[in-house]
Amino acid sequence: MELAKKFQEQKPSGMVRVFQAIDKMQDVLNLSIGEPDFVTEPDIVDAAAKGAKDGFTHYPPLQGYLDVREAVCAYWERHHGFKATPDEVCMSVGGLHVPWLAFGALLNPGDEVMLIEPYFTCYDAQIRGNGGVPVYIKTREENNFAPSIEELRAAATPRTRAIVLNYPGNPTGRVASQKQLEEIAEFAEEKDLIVLSDEIYESMVYTGNHVCFANIPGMKKRTLLTAGLSKSHCMTGWRIGYVFAPQNVINTMCVLSSFQTYGVNALSQKAAVYALNTQDEKVKARARIFEERMKAVEARLNAMKGVKCHPAEGAFYLFPDISGTGLTSEEFTWRLLNESHVAVLPGSAFGQTGEGYIRIACTQSMDTLMKAMNEMEKILQK
User: Fold this and answer.
1) Which strand (E) or helix (H) includes residue 29?
2) What is the distance of C-alpha 15 from the center of its chain?
3) β-strands 358-361, 345-346 pairing
4) Burial class (CB within 10 angstroms; exposed 0-12, middle 13-18, buried 19+) of 363
5) Which of 106, 204, 248, 306 qualifies as a FRET site for 43, CA 20 to 30 Å off?
6) Maximum distance among all Cα pairs of the chain, rounded to whole angstroms
7) Pairing relationship of beta strands 358-361 and 317-318 according to DSSP bridges
8) Phi, psi dihedrals of residue 196, rounded to the nearest 5°
């Protein structure tokens, strides 16, 4: 069967190729996937079961149930001082559903969207799939992988429509400072840009506090703030995310989602209401565990020849510089996987700025992480 022309030459990303290889192997120490190893709390599962017994087994409202949108608003005001109304919230099928709906609602053919490297690979395909043109903004580690306003201005054109932010960052685990985000806000105001701010890791910040981009003066009106419960509440399989946006954008995103999913799983929403309202202390406790893991892995990496690793700042990723080994990101990744059955991701999968780095997800037990470090050390000693 012949594929559509737009897909005939499409190749899997560096990330997908690693995932495909892992599927064919056994006994892999998998540090490649950004999924918490903790299972969903039992009482959250019970809340979903109660929802089913209470009759929430029909099509849900396209925008999401009112109670879950109220819980989303309360969570963000409680944790980050961000104020919004339920009318400004739309529930989504995981956080990754939001950029697709957003780009579909906001981009005209040929509109340019700035992607700050290193970037989560799915953004690129989502922009292209909705007629947009990604513009890659290279960054430097010494600037926390955040762009300067001068770099942004140099890349802007009359077709520039939006910019994508992701802090704490995937793959870098880095956190942009208040000053850096204020500079980006100044640029967005100057160029009249839409900002998609992916803050899915907002609960995992170890250096300072999370800065909600929409809280910066003047930014709420031009920001789509997206997050979800996959990382914070260990609910990846429930596929439950959300977005804050101006109401006219919310309305259009709801229409687009009606063509695709016709709402978000009703029982996941009922679980999310309970999770958002009751799990704050458990979210904090898990964040402390991730921080401990990252610090331990960071120490091991910095003791290895040819490897340099910046201290953990946020999320659960480390992004060590392996250029001192003389290997490219791909060479290092595949040698580690094939010879030691340790899976990481090549930094080059996240844009050219990522070359010379690898992404390590500290989403396994401390024992597994230390075994993986032992294997990596053996490879480097060779």
Assistant:
1) strand 29-30
2) 14
3) antiparallel
4) buried
5) 204
6) 61
7) antiparallel
8) -100, 110
Residue 50's pLDDT band, with cuts at 50, 70 and 90, is: very high
Backbone angles phi, psi at 14, to 5 degrees: -60, -35
CA distance 190 to 184: 10
H/E run at residue 293? helix 280-302
Rounded to two decimals, the pTM is 0.95
Compute how many other C-beta atoms are within 10 angstroms of the C-beta atom of residue 73: 21
List Cβ neighbours of 10 (8 Å cut-off, separation of 6 or more): none
Q: What is the pLDDT of residues 308-355, one digit of tens each?
A: 999 989 999 999 999 999 999 999 999 999 999 999 999 999 999 999
Angle, helix 366-381 to helix 280-302, in steps of 10 degrees = 20
- Mean pLDDT to the nearest integer, 153-165: 98
Q: Measured between alpha carbons, how far is 165 from 159 in angstroms, rounded to an integer?
A: 18
DSSP for 173-226, written as a single string: -----HHHHHHHHHHHHHHT-EEEEE-TTTT-B-SS----GGGSTT-GGGEEEE
**Torsional class of 204: left (φ above 0), alpha (ψ -120 to 50), beta (otherwise):** beta
CB 226 within 8 A of CB 235: no
In terms of phi and psi (left: phi > 0; alpha: psi -120 to 50; beta: otherwise), the region of 218 is left
Helix (H, G, I), strand (E, B) or coil at 343: strand
**How is residue 242 annotated by DSSP?**
E
For residue 121, give both structure tokens: 């690979």
For residue 50, what is the enclosing H or E element?
A: helix 42-53
pLDDT digits 0-9 by tens, 188-197: 999 999 999 9
Is pLDDT above 90 for 32? yes
